[in-house]
């Protein structure tokens, strides 16, 4: 029950910036390869969709980075997956709705789904279901800033900023300046032991 | 805002809700309105949950609205209406409730001609109760959808509220559960409320209890003081009010109805005045047909928003059934 003060900064401001720049490059490379491939993607239809709340600002940054690389900035959408979570009625998830804001038709578009931390894979499962209820994208690629392992579902990311070895009682937090942090960072803290009820 | 949960386990009325509760319902309804604008208007939030719709009193639009709300949340529904059921065979409310309870509903939506029936059911049933209108007491989801529609029309968010807006409720104030719920909710959101109706339809002490301004004459209510931003015309409930109380339809229309001339005068004072009606309307009695169909009328928006508001209520009540805080979301 006691809180531990153990807190490690895994990525500092520059690390986060560099990781995002590399993610944008990797995504761009993949899209170029796919354009030549059998899917024949329309690269101008690319959209970046962030999972609320952690993926929202990252999606905007990645879209800006992709815009610099490709000349055209992809459309950005925000996905609220609360209503699709498997733990919202069992009290596991924060139930407050923030709303889905995807002001474009996702039909036929290549979509890059963005989240901050990939953990059990349940969020991504919910995000895919929420996204596919809105239409039929030509493909969905998953980009995450941190992959901390410990998957509970068969979900694998396409683009990863940093792979971390973590344990279940640790918590990975991404702080971004857009969300009020003084500088970007990723830190790992030891979570309080889960209270038994 | 209390982590996105209501402070109450049931929605028995607006009475008992905090301002935060009301804002949470209205904010949540905004998200559901987005869901309702999609091609696929369905989310899996209440998959596998059972919503029982117990309508002991006739109602079509409220029942349809709740039923659609439940279906769009992927819940299963169980529909019970008084006519043709065991109620007409003499079964008591309590026995009916116990039988429905045996089917294990998670959420119970109740409409009943007796004030307090939802409260009584909340004592004997395990699920969360939503009051869909009880006697002359309350009709909380109607007031919530009215407030939602006003906010939408005024281009405001729920937290911006209805500050500085004046809403005038016209009709049978004493028998109307819609009026009562609105007299509780609209001031909670910052609106000034005026009520007006025949003296026989104005309950004693309404000014003191609800803090609303009371008028005997509709023209005084409409055309004195600050311009009225919205008028809410209540249905003259021919099935409830005795003829002796309300007089003829023609007399009522002349004295209290929103006829064309009155509407034009309202418009002259506020060109974007909003006309509301909880429905079903008696054209030519409490509201002129052309006024009901004019662009000032939000009657159909009210119906549309009703589904989103009821989705929000069902979702938030279902959350209340969960044991909160097992783990914070990662």
CATH topology of the largest domain in chain B, by name, is: Rossmann fold
CATH superfamily of the largest domain in chain B: Aspartate/ornithine carbamoyltransferase
Question: What is the average per-residue confidence, as pLDDT of chain B, rounded to a whole number?
Answer: 91
Q: Which protein chains make the most extensive interface, counting residues with beta carbons within 8 Å of the other chain's beta carbons?
A: A-B, 31 and 36 residues
Q: Based on helices, strands and strand pairing, what is the structural class of chain B?
A: alpha/beta
Q: N- to C-terminal separation of chain A?
A: 13 Å
* Overall geometric form of chain A: globular
Shape of chain B: globular
Poorly predicted spans of chain B = 325-330
Q: Major sheet of chain B: size, sense and barrel closure?
A: 5 strands, parallel
Count of structural domains of chain A: 1
The top level CATH class name of the largest domain in chain B: Alpha Beta
Oligomer: heterodimer
- The portion of residues forming beta strands of chain A comes to 25-35%
Percent in strands of chain B: 5-15%
Write down the CATH topology of chain A. Rossmann fold
The number of helical elements of chain B comes to 13
Helix and strand string of chain B, N-terminal first?
HEHEHEHEHEHEHEHEHHHEHH
Average per-residue pLDDT of chain A, rounded, comes to 90
Structure description:
The complex is a heterodimer of chains A (197) and B (330). Chain A is α/β, with parallel strands linked by helices and 197 residues long. Chain A contains three helices and eight strands; from the N terminus they run βαβαββαββββ. A five-stranded parallel sheet of chain A has the order 3-2-4-5-6, sandwiched between helices. Chain A has a three-stranded antiparallel sheet with strand order 1-8-7. Chain B has a five-stranded parallel sheet. In chain B, strands 2-1-3-4 form a four-stranded parallel sheet, with helices on both faces. Chain B starts with 18 loop residues before the first helix and ends in a 9-residue tail after the last helix. Residues 325-330 of chain B have low confidence and may be disordered. Chain A binds chain B through residues 80, 82-84, 88-101, 117, 119-120, 123, 129-130, 133-135, 171, 194-195, 197, and chain B through 1, 3-5, 24, 27-28, 30-32, 34-35, 38-40, 42-46, 49, 73, 315-316, 318-319, 321-330.
């Amino acid at each position: 029950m006691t809180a531990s003060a153990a807190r490690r900064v895994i990525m500092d401001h520059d690390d986060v910036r560099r990781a995002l720049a590399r993610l944008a490059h990797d995504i761009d490379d993949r899209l170029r390869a796919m354009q030549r491939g059998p899917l024949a993607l329309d690269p101008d239809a690319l959209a970046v969709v962030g999972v609320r709340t952690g993926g929202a600002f990252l999606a905007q940054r990645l879209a800006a980075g992709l815009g610099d690389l490709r000349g055209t900035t992809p459309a950005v959408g925000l996905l609220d997956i609360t209503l699709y979570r498997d733990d919202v009625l069992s009290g596991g998830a924060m139930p407050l709705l923030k709303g889905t804001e995807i002001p474009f038709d996702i039909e036929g578009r290549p979509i890059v789904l963005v989240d901050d931390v990939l953990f059990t894979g349940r969020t991504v499962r919910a995000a895919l279901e929420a996204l596919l209820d809105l239409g039929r994208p030509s493909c969905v690629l998953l980009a995450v800033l941190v992959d901390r392992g410990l998957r509970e579902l068969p979900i694998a990311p396409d683009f990863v900023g940093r792979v971390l070895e973590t344990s279940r009682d640790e918590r990975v937090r991404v702080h971004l300046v857009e969300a009020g942090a003084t500088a970007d960072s990723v830190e790992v803290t030891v979570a309080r032991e889960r209270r038994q009820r | 805002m209390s982590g996105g949960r209501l402070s109450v386990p049931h929605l028995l009325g607006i009475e008992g809700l905090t301002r935060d509760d009301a804002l949470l319902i209205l904010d949540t309804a905004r998200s559901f309105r987005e869901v309702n604008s999609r091609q696929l208007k369905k989310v899996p939030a209440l998959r596998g949950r059972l919503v029982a719709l117990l309508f002991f009193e006739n109602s079509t639009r409220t029942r349809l609205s709740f039923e659609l709300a439940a279906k769009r949340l992927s819940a299963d529904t169980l529909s019970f209406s008084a006519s043709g059921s065991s109620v007409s065979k003499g079964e008591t409310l309590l026995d009916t409730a116990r039988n429905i309870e045996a089917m294990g509903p998670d959420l119970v939506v109740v409409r009943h001609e007796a004030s307090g029936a939802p409260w009584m059911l909340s004592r004997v049933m395990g699920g969360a109760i939503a009051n869909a209108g009880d006697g002359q007491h309350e009709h909380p989801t109607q007031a919530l959808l009215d407030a939602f529609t006003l906010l939408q029309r005024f281009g405001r968010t729920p937290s911006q509220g209805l500050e500085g807006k004046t809403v005038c409720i016209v009709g049978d104030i004493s028998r109307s559960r819609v009026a009562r719920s609105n007299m509780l909710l609209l001031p909670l959101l910052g609106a000034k409320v005026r009520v007006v109706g025949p003296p026989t339809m104005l309950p004693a002490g309404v000014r003191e209890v609800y803090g609303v301004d009371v008028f005997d004459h509709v023209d005084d209510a409409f055309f004195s003081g600050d311009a009225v931003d919205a008028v809410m015309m209540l249905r003259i409930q021919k099935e409830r009010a005795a003829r002796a109380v309300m007089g003829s339809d023609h007399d009522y229309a002349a004295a209290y109805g929103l006829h064309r001339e009155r509407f034009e005068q309202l418009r002259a004072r506020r060109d974007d005045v909003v006309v509301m009606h909880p429905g079903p309307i008696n054209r030519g009695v409490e509201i002129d047909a052309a006024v009901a169909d004019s662009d000032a009328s939000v009657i159909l928006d009210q119906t549309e928003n009703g589904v989103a508001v009821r989705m929000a209520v069902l979702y938030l009540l279902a959350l209340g059934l969960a044991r909160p805080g097992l783990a914070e979301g990662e």
